[in-house]
Amino acid sequence: MGPVEFHREPPANLTTMVIAFGGWIDAGRAATGALRHLVQDLPAERLASIDPEEFLVLTQERPEVRMRTDGGRDIVWPRTEFFAWHPEDGRDGLLLFSGPEPHLRWRTYAKALLDVAERCGVRRIVSLGALLAGAPHTRPIRVTARCTDPAWRPVVEAWGIYRPPTYEGPTGISSVVLDAAEQRGITHLGFMGQAPHYLQDSENPAAIQALLTHVARLLRLNPDLSPFPEAIEDFRRQCDRAVARNRASQEHVRQLEQQYDATAAEEARPLPSGELDSDKLMQELQDFVRRQREGGSQG
To answer: Would you kindly state where each structural domain of the chain is located, as residue ranges?
Structure first.
């Protein structure tokens, strides 16, 4: 028995796959947040899962205990799941995949993932990701793309977001999966958002919306984006208040804004010089959000 468990018979006409991994390449939880929104909005059905015990160190990606209404408790294991969606107009469907970045046996993991993809008829992959960058929370999230698919590359070039790969250095599981996909003849396109580096642990609705908008445009989907404007406005207001508590933080954000506004290139910018205690800023933001929630629950 392999690491993949199917929960229903896999279809063979899911020609496009969308993937998102938690962890290093999921700044602002943008990639997994966008994938989660797609699964819920389409809606897509749970198709298969990968056993977390084979690829995760569970002292790093811990299971959680949840209370039931009857007073009992359930253990919820980290989820690495495939979902299937079939459009009503008869077009080929989508295979959606999300899970935490594995800690162990990356090549075996990539093989298991791509075996499912091939069994479902996948011919091309859209990868979602986000990195921490010198970007201010007061400006729109920038998204760039890299692409090996001959039909999609002219599209992202026309959008002005295509960037040929130039990065060298440590990499993540998505790069390993996409490299293995190329060896199987599966093309791919990767969208990469740029999230503010000083908001490392917060779910960023603006980054989620940016990735979701791009993948929806590419795949001609029409997800419900109506919850995002209010969530983004609230998130930015909370960030503004946290930044206003510290003069160095205010100056740092101003420098990021000047850099953002001064360049038309949608490239990740180097962080400006100067001292910034991003851990302190992040803690202040989290404390502020918690106080706001506690105040709202008491009202």
So the answer is: 4-226
C-alpha to C-alpha distances, 168 to 36, 172, 173, nearest whole angstrom: 30, 12, 15
Express each pLDDT in 104-163 by its tens digit. 999 999 999 999 999 999 999 999 999 988 888 888 889 999 999 999 999 999 999 999
Most confident range, picked from 13-17, 234-238, 276-280: 13-17
Q: Read off the tokens for 53.
A: 């015990």
Amino acid at 222: N
The pTM score is 0.83
* 105 φ/ψ sector (left φ>0, alpha ψ -120 to 50, else beta): left
Q: Phi-psi category of 169—alpha, beta or left, where left has phi over 0 and alpha has psi -120 to 50? A: left
pLDDT band at 183 (very low <50, low <70, confident <90, very high): very high
Instruction: Judge if the upstream peptide bond of residue 43 is cis by omega within 30 degrees of 0.
Output: yes
Which residue type, as a one-letter code, is found at position 110? Answer: A
Q: Are 78 and 61 in contact (CB under 8 A)?
A: yes
C-alpha 52/C-alpha 48 separation (Å) is 13
Contact between 55 and 100 (Cβ < 8 Å): no
- What token pair was written down for 141? 């999230």
| List of E strands, 138-283 | 143-147, 187-196
Q: Using DSSP, state whether 99 is helix, strand or coil.
A: strand
Q: In terms of C-beta density within 10 A (0-12 exposed, 13-18 middle, 19 or more buried), how is residue 290 classed? A: exposed
Length of the chain, please? 299
Considering the domain delimited by 4-226, tell me its CATH architecture. 3-Layer(aba) Sandwich (3.40)
